[in-house]
Amino acid sequence: MPEQLIEVKHLKKYFDTKHGTLHAVDDVSFTIGQGETLGVVGESGCGKSTLGRMLVHLLDSTDGQIFFKGEDITRVKREKLSELRRKMQIIFQDPYSSLNPRMTVGQVLGEALKNAGTPREEMENRVFELMDTVGLARRYLDTYPHELDGGRRQRIGIGRALAMNPEFVVCDEPVSALDVSIQAQVLNLMLDLQEQRKLTYMFITHDLSVVKYISDHIMVMYLGQAVEKSAAKELFAHHYHPYTKALLSAVPVADVHHEKKRILLKGELTSPINPKPGCRFAARCLYATEECFRDNPVLTEVTPNHYVACHHVRDINEEL
Amino acid sequence: MEEKRENKDLVLDIQDLDIRYETDDGVCRAVNGVSLQLERGKTVGLVGETGAGKTTIALGIMGLIPNPPGRVAGGSIRFFGEDLLKKSAHQMQQIRGKKISMIFQDPMTALNPIDTVGDQIREVILLHEKGLSRAEAARKACEVLEMVGIPAERYEEYPHQFSGGMKQRIVIAIALACNPELLIADEPTTALDVTIQAQVLDKLNELKQNLGTSMIMITHDLGIVAEMCDQVAIVYAGELVEFGSVVDVFDDPAHPYTVGLFGSLPSVAEDKPRLTPIPGLMPDPMNLPEGCSFAPRCSQACEACRKNQVFAERTPGHFVRCHLHAAKGEA
User: Fold this and answer.
1) Strands (DSSP E) along B91-146, which ranges?
2) E strand segments, B24-136
3) Do B277 and A181 touch (CB under 8 A)?
4) Of A2, A187, B318, B331, which is most buried by a Cβ count within 10 Å?
5) What is the pLDDT of residue A192?
6) Considering only A144-148, B192-196, B293-297, which range has the smallest mean pLDDT?
7) What gap in Å lies between CA A25 and CA A12, rounded to an integer?
8) What is this model's ipTM?
9) What's the mean per-residue pLDDT of chain B?
10) What is the pLDDT of residue A2?
């Protein structure tokens, strides 16, 4: 078991809205080991991006604790925060809007390196080094983001995050805006960098095949809560929560001989504003009973290191 | 490509379609010599990456290429034997929405935000089914709403009151309101979550089967092609590089680009220790290379590939645009 780099305990984020309190992230706990990747999967509005932003302090948490290398970083002062940000970085989904259109590649990376305390005389070399690392040809030094394609733009985003030489990187849908052949290039780059630099990733995505490819552990979220959590291989071999089952069965598989056993969910996501007591998934669940509408199930270990939040997990899975 | 078959069941027969965008910076060769046949009740998938020309082919069929700068520079598009390229603008208006409909990618922008969803469906019916009174058309609009799984009571609601998946079903309702012969779906589920995507694809399949509609499914997702399509055309730099039944193309992908696409794809069904991406990028359609347009990225490219290209039948009905892989067993 590697050392835990990140530990999150009962983290919550509520937003006050005109219509009531929106429970974006509601009591989520997990750990990420050094050099490992936690994949966070869920559909739009499940709170996965909010969770990522709280970890790097782009959003303050409402309640709960975040530990980085055993140190409580939930509430930190400004000076401490800039020190922390060197160790924790984030890569955003949309390389089109997360880069300043008026800055060249060299300026974007240079600014990040300057913040990391790189002396001016080393700057040019370090920018080139960084471009080599993320696979951007040196001739792009003076180009602007709009002149580059999505894949190269995302490489700038990755380079900017790596300028700080971080230990932990939150990747918020970094390949969702890219075509498959470019997506594969960027995913491979991220795996290479992880190996070389012993990086720890939290990889947020809605794409189950991507998360399977890149993660060591996976957490499935639904409406602000974790419904299932286990090692990546284990989750794809055995999934016990009714939502995980439906989610995995919904993914179209690029194989004409693949046997389809699709579980169609009824209805759509319910509102995260002032959620009713009970299981968040109950209204769409095939197996929901009275109990499900009354008590919110907690994550329980059903097999070693495999956690599921469902009252009926043992009734609906024969193997348990 | 092959001898002209007289086939009553041929809904669409595209031959050597060329579409150009003429701009101040040069000529963009968006679609180059595309030939495609679609039989009644069948679904063909157009797969390719951003900028490959998939949507331009669809807009060409619909007669919606913006002119200027766009122009259909050559070829024919026969719809039940009649060349759509020879129709007047007025005649095309009669066909669009009635005989050929299109579903666009983004349901959020395809609907009119200040009109109720029911009225938007009724509008299509009133335009194309002459002689129906407004009340009759409204009744039919309700039926169509129910058909896509939305209660008719929601007729008076506005698009913003619906979720993304429901909006896309309303767009499908508008497209199917007049029982078109051909439905073109341009990335119909790309903007949707996977469980909602499953609902919409299921609905689309069910309706297609009940109504006997032929369909062109434009997508970048090979998984959707495997589930929805009978045939598939792989589009690269405005050309079809491979065309055949889904079984042929998925079990025996021949063109190096198709093979590369499959290698780039992470899968939930199998374990891939490492993806094998295609190096490089798609060529600029303003400046296509001589010979095979994939040659600069192809690890197997030879002298002949840089000079010219072939489009040959590998096995019956399975066409490949490649010198090396046109015949099975070679290379």
Assistant:
1) 100-103
2) 26-39, 43-47, 70-79, 82-83, 100-103
3) yes
4) A187
5) 93
6) B192-196
7) 5
8) 0.83
9) 89
10) 54
B199 in contact with A, Cβ within 8 Å:
yes
Smallest Cα distance from A15 to chain B, Å: 21
At A180 the pLDDT is 86
Give the start-to-end residue ranges of the domains of chain A: 4-87+164-319, 100-156
Distance from CA of A315 to the nearest CA of B (A): 24
Nearest-by-CA chain B residue for A152: B281
State the Cα–Cα distance between residues A23 and A12, nearest whole angstrom.
Answer: 8
Q: What is the pLDDT of residues B58-77, one digit of tens each?
A: 999 999 998 888 999 999 99
Gap between the Cα atoms of B184 and B11, Å rounded: 13
Res B331: pLDDT: 42
pLDDT tops 80 at residue B182 = yes
> What's the burial of B259, exposed, middle or buried (CB within 10 Å: 0-12/13-18/19+)?
middle
User: At residue B5, does pLDDT exceed 80?
Assistant: no
Q: Listing from the earlier edge strand, what are the strands of the sheet with A63-68?
A: A20-33, A4-17, A63-68, A71-72
Q: Environment class of residue B8 by beta-carbon count within 10 Å: exposed (0-12), middle (13-18) or buried (19+)?
A: exposed
B259 and chain A in contact, CB less than 8 A: no
Answer whether B21's CB lies under 8 Å from B69's CB: yes
Residue B252 to residues A30, A165, A253, B244, B315: CA-CA distances in angstroms? 43, 44, 16, 10, 10
Token readout for A242 is 């009714």
Task: Kindly report the number of other CB atoms within 10 A of residue A60's CB atom.
Answer: 10
pLDDT at A82 over 60: yes
